[in-house]
Design a protein that fits this description.
The complex is a heterotrimer. By secondary structure, chain A is of the alpha+beta class. Helix content of chain A is about 35%, strand content about 15%. Chain A folds into 4 domains: about 220 residues, Aldehyde ferredoxin oxidoreductase, N-terminal domain (Aldehyde Ferredoxin Oxidoreductase,  A, domain 1, 4-Layer Sandwich); about 180 residues, Aldehyde Ferredoxin Oxidoreductase Protein, subunit A, domain 2; about 230 residues, Aldehyde Ferredoxin Oxidoreductase Protein, subunit A, domain 3 (Orthogonal Bundle), CATH 1.10.599.10; about 30 residues, no CATH class. Chain A is globular. Chain C has 6 helices and 4 strands; from the N terminus they run αββαβαβααα. β15 of chain A pairs antiparallel with β2 of chain B.
Chain lengths: ~700, ~230, ~130
């Protein structure tokens, strides 16, 4: 098999049975999330179990492009299973992480790992090429993620220093590598079953959202280590090499010619985009396997490999306290990676606690009693204390380890803080990432799914670029009309320019239903199953390319087919995405989903108070009004409840779901070869009518 | 090796030749081996070398993946003839090293090969390379490389040795390689942390091969240039 | 840019002080990919610290070190007038809003104005 290894590792932690699933059985799902969801659906009979239940199955999946030269796709690993973070229901969910784990797993001969059951005692999984063992993790339990990895490296390789070739296994052929084992591990937060605990790989690659750290903790699974020396077969190596060079020449950042196009941040952005520099601290860019832009940073002082919120979450408080960003931010970043806690949730928690403290509700001897040193906000001391309490479930951590939503509920503050927007948990208890009132495809896609969707495809050209330009008093280098033309060209199969009409009418239209459908299908297949990284794809508008036309949708099938030898078209991939989305939908329905639940937090619908609300900033977006395209500030908008409900009906209809319930109908599932899914829904009386 | 009259260099002659090479004078001998009066051989210097800037490297390993892809037709970092050593928990600049074959003026790997498998390819700019037909898998060259990790790579799948040939022989890439052509690692590196030169680097120490490739753009991006 | 007449002692005390939760200002830190994070601002000093829009070059080339610290200028003006009670400063902010047509230029001018006012108050109250 080209691209694939042909084997998926299956480990039952309870019975300690180690076996293999033939990848061919699931190959039609592509890889990553598609295969992960399909395996979950087959293995988990009662899908309404808790994420803590030993019957939960976690799938950790690569794709045919993992470990290859294809840019910004080789490094991602997808994780699936019933999560812990979403509120009020623990939805079947996903997360992913970067680095070198996916490639190493493929070199060891595995397309993925399926974890079943719960071990009686803490264990870790030791994978050396095709040899797999369960090892007692008692010596590792309680260690932070970095210490755990170092100890495992030493155990697997016998080395303390890694500058030479190392033998992998004991075969007389002499398989070897210079790469250390790639380890995925939980820290103390996961061991203590936190709902906001993450999985960590190397220094700063994290599967943050979803709560998989606590899921592993509930299974007594501490870590998975893999070292591999095998080869991935490539159908057309020359085509892959040429494709890589084509992408570099025509669509990537250009070392000799940094663009002056404001807001260009997808495939073409500059290195270390995700990691701010600290004044006076030397660094280099750092990237996942085979990435052409490398969005992270390694510094001389810490904050190693962390990117995005993992780096930012404490920067603001640090800068506020000290007048500029200091090493407190870098140390804070390393701290949460070592503990294994979701940075995005933690950032929201810190702001919320600050607000409650200011209101006089939270503090020593207050209604919510805590000894957190708010006078040290911005210092490392504050975040260290907070994180320690979180990971050990002490002090305020006794509540907060369950995440903000459940904590707010326990404190009797859920309704009022969400209503006022003081705690902006907009969809399924997740912090608002991009606003459901303005950039609607994000919020809509999130509420129709299982979590903050975290897919930036439309965000850059339709919101961020125009907003930054507007704030700077500059003309965007590309007009709204031209963006709509590009979208129409690239968003197969709908090819509808009005998909990016974010006007007050447009956000409730059938065009927006297509946008959301396109987005869910594209991300489910091309990004979450094949692994194309969200920080590069979809690349719609690219400042380096002719006519500013980005690398999507040409690149996605180009790299995939060079590796696999197949002739999958972009549209066929979209259809597979639709299938995977429907499979996930079925799982949520079996968990109890109904359209009535798919509503946002109250602040989404209520008029904000000027200056006080969760509203904010200019939100300049692409709109089509009175027959003309333009950029317009839609900030301050709220969603109309009934119009949103009508929009949901349009969306369900487009997807071929019963608009009364939001459940897929048999005809839709059958058309995608999902009769067995229809049968299971039917047996639970949850098949859509029609 | 030369003391008993077998294949090898006279140390005196070698030093004369390599000294000339180190001054960048180069030697245009025309064919791989010449028989000198005291039964020694001289090896022409390579017409190409890879220079690297480890401080510029982002650790993406694209070079390794490109190398194994174009040479083997497969993706396997273990078969790459250039390696990137990474220490995820170390701080910059001790966290990453690019380790490339130096196409040594005095290639100990070649000297160690008793089967003439490791030779100077005069059709391709004198790159030091391995003839897979002649390699007996004795691994002498793998052991002989004075650098760590050894730059002569043990291909455990084919059970023979292989090494960097500056992409002179890349059956899976249609681009012309070798010192007069392109190198896959140089072509793909997103940070331009690997460069190619025809000038013979200083052989003593590392300064000839570990260089500073960080210029104005690097500074503009906010990274250090020292 | 306008130059401000010295404030009264009463105004100076309010400029130097902190307001309660109900009178807070909403600031939003805008960063690419991460989204927009609300931060509440409780004093004039915090306004100065928070208001920011990095250069276009920084926003483009140096990764997300750069960001926008946004406070709606109109809301800020009203807050200065009604909550802090510094109507002179509020009027000066309004003038800058009318003179300059984009946030980037406005934020730079408003920040200078508010800083000037803050320093005036420090001097008036003889606080080092």
């Amino acid at each position: 098999m080209n691209g694939y290894t042909g084997s998926i590792l299956r480990v039952n932690l309870k019975t300690r049975k180690i076996s293999t699933i033939d990848t061919k059985k699931y190959e039609m799902w592509g890889g990553g999330h598609g295969i992960g969801s399909a395996i979950f659906f087959d293995l988990v009979k009662d899908k309404a179990i808790s994420g803590y239940d030993s019957g939960n199955v976690v799938t950790i999946m690569t794709s045919p492009l993992s470990g290859t030269l294809a840019p910004a796709v080789s490094g991602r690993t997808e994780v699936q299973g019933v999560g812990l973070q979403s509120y009020p229901v623990e939805w079947f969910t996903r997360s992913n992480f970067g680095g070198r784990f996916a490639g190493m797993l493929k070199y060891a001969g595995w397309d993925g790992i399926v974890i079943e059951g719960k071990s009686k005692n803490p264990v870790w999984i030791d994978i050396r090429d095709r040899e797999v063992k369960l090892v007692d993790a008692k010596p590792l339990w309680g260690l932070d993620t970095w210490e755990t990895q170092k100890k495992i490296w030493h155990r697997v390789t016998g080395l303390k220093s890694y500058k030479d070739w190392m033998e992998v296994g004991k075969s007389p052929r002499g398989e070897r590598t210079t790469l250390k084992p790639a380890v995925l591990t939980i820290g103390p937060a996961g061991e203590n079953l936190s709902r906001i605990a993450s999985l960590i790989h190397d220094a700063g690659n994290a599967a943050g959202q979803g709560g998989f750290g606590g899921v592993w903790g509930s299974k007594n699974l501490k870590a998975i280590s893999v070292i591999g020396s095998g080869s991935i077969h490539i159908s057309d190596p020359n085509a892959l090499m040429e494709a890589r060079l084509w992408a570099k020449k025509s669509y990537s950042w250009q070392p000799g010619n940094l663009t002056d196009k404001l807001g260009s941040h997808a495939f073409s952005s500059n290195p270390s985009q995700g990691s701010p520099s600290t004044p006076g601290v030397k660094s280099r860019p750092s990237g996942c396997m085979a990435c052409h832009k490398c969005c992270r940073r390694k510094t001389e002082l810490g904050g190693n490999e962390s990117s995005c919120v993992d780096m930012f979450f404490y920067c603001f408080e640090d800068a506020k306290k000290h007048g500029k960003q200091t090493t407190a931010s870098l140390k804070a970043s390393d701290l949460i990676q070592k503990t294994g806690i979701n940075a995005f949730e933690l950032e929201t928690v810190i702001i919320w606690l600050k607000t409650l403290h200011k209101k006089g509700i939270l503090g020593p001897g207050k209604e919510i009693d805590t000894d957190l040193p708010f006078d040290k906000m911005g210092e490392y001391e504050f975040v260290e204390k907070l994180v320690t309490q979180l990971e050990t479930r002490q002090g305020i951590g006794a509540d907060l380890h369950n995440g903000a939503a459940r904590t707010a509920k326990k404190w009797g503050r859920f309704e009022k803080d969400l209503k006022s927007g003081v705690l902006a948990l907009q969809y399924w208890g997740y912090p608002k990432h991009y606003d459901a009132r303005t950039e609607v495809e994000w919020g809509y896609g999130s509420i129709l799914g299982d979590r903050d969707c975290n897919e930036h495809d439309f965000m850059m050209p339709c919101y961020y670029s125009p907003s930054m330009n507007a704030l700077a008093g500059m003309e965007t280098y590309i007009s709204a009309k031209e963006v709509s033309q590009i979208i129409a060209e690239k968003c197969k199969p709908y090819n509808d320019p009005l998909m990016i009409d974010y006007s007050d009418e447009g956000i409730y239209s059938e065009h927006m239903a297509k946008t959301v459908a396109w987005h869910r299908h594209y991300t489910r297949f091309w990004k979450q199953s094949i692994g194309y990284c969200d920080w590069c794809y979809a690349d719609f508008v690219n400042p380096y390319a002719p006519g500013y036309r980005g690398i999507t949708p040409e690149a996605e099938p180009k790299f995939l087919n060079a590796v696999t030898g197949k002739n999958l078209t972009f549209e066929q991939g979209m259809e597979l995405g639709r299938k995977i989305w429907n499979l996930d939908r079925a799982i949520w329905i079996l968990q109890g989903r109904h359209r009535d639940q798919e509503v946002f937090a109250d602040f989404t619908y209520e008029k904000p108070q000027e200056g006080h609300a969760t509203y904010e900033i200019p939100y300049v977006m692409t709109v089509h009004e009175k027959g003309k395209w333009k950029y317009k500030d839609v900030g301050g908008r709220i969603l109309d409840r009934s119009k949103f409900e009508e929009w949901k009906t349009k969306y369900y209809t487009l997807e071929g779901w019963d608009p009364e319930s939001g459940w897929p109908v048999r005809k839709t599932l059958k058309s995608m070869g999902l009769d067995y899914v229809a049968d299971e829904l039917h047996s639970h009386k949850k098949l859509g009518r029609g | 090796m030369s003391e008993n009259g077998k294949k090898g260099f006279s140390r005196r002659v070698f030093l004369k030749l390599s000294g000339a090479a180190a001054l960048g004078l180069g030697l245009d001998i025309g064919f791989a081996r010449i028989l000198l009066a005291d039964d020694v051989v001289a090896i022409p210097v390579s017409q190409g070398y890879l220079l690297v800037d480890s401080k510029k490297c982002a650790g993406c390993m694209s070079c390794m993946l490109a190398c194994s892809l174009v040479h083997e037709g497969k993706e396997n970092p273990s078969l790459a003839r250039i390696q990137v050593l990474k220490e995820p928990f170390e701080s910059y600049p001790d966290d990453i090293s690019i380790v490339q074959c130096r196409q040594c003026v005095n290639p100990l790997c070649l000297e160690s090969c008793e089967y003439d498998a490791l030779y100077v390819d005069t059709r391709n700019g004198n790159v030091r390379t391995i003839d897979p037909e002649k390699c007996t898998a004795c691994m002498a060259c793998v052991e002989a490389c004075p650098f760590t990790p050894g730059r002569a790579v043990w291909n455990f799948e084919k059970e023979r040795a292989q090494k960097c040939d500056l992409c002179a022989n890349t059956p899976y890439w249609n681009e012309k390689g070798g010192p007069r052509g392109k190198q896959a690692c140089v072509s793909v590196c997103p940070m331009e942390a690997i460069t190619f030169t025809t000038t013979v680097p200083v052989q003593e120490g590392d300064s000839g091969y570990l260089v500073n490739l960080r210029g104005a753009t690097w500074k503009e991006l906010g990274y250090p240039t020292d | 840019m306008v130059s401000l007449p010295k404030p009264s002692r009463d105004v100076a005390l309010r400029v130097m002080g902190e307001v309660g939760f109900e009178e807070r200002l909403l600031g939003v830190k805008m960063r690419p990919m991460v989204g927009n994070q609300e931060h509440f601002v409780y004093s004039v000093k915090e306004v100065i610290e928070f208001l920011r829009m990095d250069s276009v070059e920084d926003l483009l080339t140096t990764g997300s070190k750069a960001y926008v610290g946004y406070i709606d200028p109109l809301v800020l003006k009203n807050w200065m007038a009604e909550v802090i009670g510094d109507k002179v400063l509020a009027e000066a902010i309004k003038e800058e809003m009318e003179r300059l047509d984009n946030f980037k230029d406005q934020v730079a001018a408003i920040k200078m104005l508010v800083s000037e006012r803050f320093n005036q108050c420090v001097a008036l109250l003889e606080i080092s």
